[in-house]
Design a protein that fits this description.
Layout: H1 3-43, H2 50-71, H3 80-83, H4 87-122, H5 134-155
Helix pairs in contact: 1-2, 2-5, 4-5
């Protein structure tokens, strides 16, 4: 099995695990919200810090979801003109798109990683739930870091269309 196939399978496996994680986070947030509403209106007591936990879960869901969208190549595009262009121009535009994505995501990764590290070094925690602030802030670094890796991987294989990736196990 070639290295390219192994890398594609590793990314596919990571994306499957990410989608499962997103589902679990969403279900947990909905359940926490439900229990908190029942507690608040039926018993006059809310779960202290529930709003923070839900908010930070949503931050992680947004950035992990962006990674899955990037892997699936499902970002919104304005490609009316490019879709009608010759194949060589489509390839040039695609490579430029990947270069910009890798550069932008790389810059955001570095800056957000530094910020999350500062939060960890200061020992800053959220007010209500006492969640270390490095955890929600690292969602940006993890998301954009993975997006940069995906863009770099695809730049290394410009001739391979996304449709040709391995998404199923061989029979």
């Amino acid at each position: 099995m070639s290295l390219a196939i192994k890398v594609e399978r590793a990314f596919d496996c990571l994306m499957r695990m990410t989608v499962i994680t997103l589902g679990v986070l969403l279900i947990a947030a909905v359940c926490l919200n439900f229990v908190n509403v029942i507690g608040r209106y039926a018993f006059g007591r809310a779960i202290f810090g529930a709003d923070e936990i839900q908010t930070y879960s949503m931050v992680w869901m947004a950035f992990l979801g962006a990674v899955v969208v990037t892997w699936r190549d499902a970002h919104l595009r304005m490609d009316v003109l490019v879709s009608r262009a010759p194949a060589w121009l489509k390839a040039v535009v695609r490579f430029a798109e990947l270069m910009l994505m890798a550069a932008t995501a790389g810059i955001v990764f570095v800056q957000s990683w530094k910020y999350a590290a500062q939060m960890a070094a200061m020992g800053r925690a959220s007010d209500a739930a006492a969640i270390p602030m490095a955890i929600p802030h690292s969602a940006v670094a993890v998301g954009f870091g993975l997006i940069a890796l995906i863009a770099l991987w695809r730049m290394s294989r410009p001739a391979a269309p996304r449709d040709a990736t391995i998404t199923q196990t061989p029979s």
